[in-house]
Amino acid sequence: MACVAVTWARPESTYTDKWDNINVDEILESNRLLKGYVDCLLGKGRCTPDGKALKETLPDALEHECVKCTGKQKSGADKVIRHLVNKRPDLWKELAVRYDPDNIYQARYKDKIDAVKGSA
To answer: Pfam family example for this protein (predicted)?
Structure first.
């Protein structure tokens, strides 16, 4: 559901790599930081510049299977998905309701989601 550090699109074929070196583990290990990002994505709280960029880019990344994501962004997204599915299913569900109300992406990515379950 989340491509952490994915940002607005450049005219080239990938999203900007400006935030590729964000410490995804630090965000996932901090309830405060994680909640800040999730609240931003859900429109419940203020967004940092990178949170705002993620919020703007996430729908495109979901729709197009992250084809414009850099390798680091794809790796970060996998890590975030694994964490949310296994350790924070409450947040995963909230994000799914917001970004996938018709279960289009849940169905499209079912195999990938099922593959990360239990592999936190």
So the answer is: OS-D
